[in-house]
TrEMBL record:
The lineage of its organism: Eukaryota, Discoba, Heterolobosea, Tulamoebidae, Pleurostomum. PROSITE patterns: COMPLEX1_ND1_1, COMPLEX1_ND1_2. It comes from Pleurostomum flabellatum. Its EC number is 7.1.1.2. The gene is nad1. Keywords: Membrane, Mitochondrion, NAD, Transmembrane, Transmembrane helix, Ubiquinone. This is NADH-ubiquinone oxidoreductase chain 1. Its main location: membrane. It is found in: Membrane; Mitochondrion inner membrane.
Length: 330
């Protein structure tokens, strides 16, 4: 029993460390891609090609003083970023990195992901409310409304993938793509899921909660030191998680595009999964540097009048195809 506890604890620590490394690489990639698109160098002072810049930024944040705003709710103000980062960690418990490499293989892992992603809304709401600042509160309200609106479309898109994979388990969904990735028959839905992922992670062009010209910095404007660092880590951890979901649900996770039977997938499954996640993280960075910010009314109109009707039609269409046997690769 004690050995089992230590083994699980070691796995949790490894996930935490790899997530921190992934966030560091994602932040550096974000700044490098933006610099390249804007025809500048980006970070190039700290270390060779600026590879030590995330470490320098992290040390700077952790060495700063923790400042509590006047008349703020100190307890909730301190715990809200911790809760947000904790929710982003919980999501990784059901993510398979390779065949047989998953921390918790539960039958309804897709429902677990939807439930935990809904809980993260409370951390953002409490961080804005407890700051006792109008800019923070407006930013948190925008973020909550945006996340709840786009979660509806994300839920319908996940239902389509669940119908195709005939399971709520992520591992089974990945294995059902052994013949062909869902990206090919569901390519328009991959684009829709990418748009929803951008909105769920508050990334450009849907970064209304952090609009500098309107809200200074959004719900995290009053945070410094460890509080800001945790919110920042949670945001980029969610970006990497959404990239993982796109890779697992549409690109077969660790399965290659042509599954050659004479090769063992386990030998290079980690590498394939990492390459697919890196590709989607690059798309996140590319979109941020290329598209202007939407207005808030355009953001809501896109969610309720465009994405949700298309998602509902997709669910009905795939359901009818499965009932009447028109799916060509089944």
């Amino acid at each position: 029993m004690l050995l089992f506890f230590y083994k699980n604890f070691l796995i949790y620590v490894m996930i935490f460390v790899f997530l921190l490394l992934g966030v560091a690489i994602a932040t550096l990639l974000d700044r490098k891609v933006m610099g390249s698109i804007q025809r500048r160098k980006g970070p190039n002072v700290a270390g060779i090609f600026g590879i030590l810049q995330p470490i320098a930024d992290g040390l700077k944040l952790f060495l700063k003083e923790i400042v509590f705003p006047t008349q703020s709710n100190v307890v909730i103000f301190f715990l809200a970023p911790v809760f947000t980062f904790f929710c982003s960690l919980l999501l990784w418990f059901v993510v398979p990195f390779n065949e047989g490499v998953v921390l918790t293989d539960i039958p309804f892992s897709m429902l677990y992901i939807l439930a935990i992603s809904s809980l993260s809304v409370y951390g953002i709401l409490f961080s804005g409310w407890s700051s006792n600042s109008k800019y923070s509160f407006l930013g948190s309200l925008r973020s909550v409304a945006q996340m709840i609106s786009y979660e509806v479309s994300m839920g319908f898109l996940i239902i389509v993938v669940v119908l195709m994979g005939d399971s709520f388990n992520i591992v089974d969904i990945v294995k059902s793509q052994n013949f062909v990735w869902f990206l090919f028959p569901l390519f328009p839905l991959w684009i829709l899921f990418l748009i929803v992922a951008l909105a769920e992670t508050n990334r450009a062009p849907f970064d209304l909660p952090e609009a500098e010209a309107e809200l200074v910095a959004g719900y995290n404007v009053e945070y410094s030191s460890i509080g800001f660092a945790l919110l920042f880590l949670g945001e980029y951890a969610n970006i990497i998680f959404m990239s993982s979901m796109l890779s697992l649900l549409f690109m077969g996770g660790w399965i290659p595009i042509m599954n050659l039977n004479h090769l063992s997938i386990n030998d290079f499954g980690f590498f394939l999964f990492g390459m697919k996640v890196s590709f989607h993280v690059f798309i996140f960075c590319w979109v941020r540097a290329s598209f202007p910010r939407y207005r808030y009314d355009q953001l809501m109109k896109l969610s309720w009048k465009v994405l949700m009707p298309i998602s509902v039609v997709a669910v009905l269409s795939v359901g009818l195809c499965l009932v009447y046997g028109y799916v060509f690769f089944k």
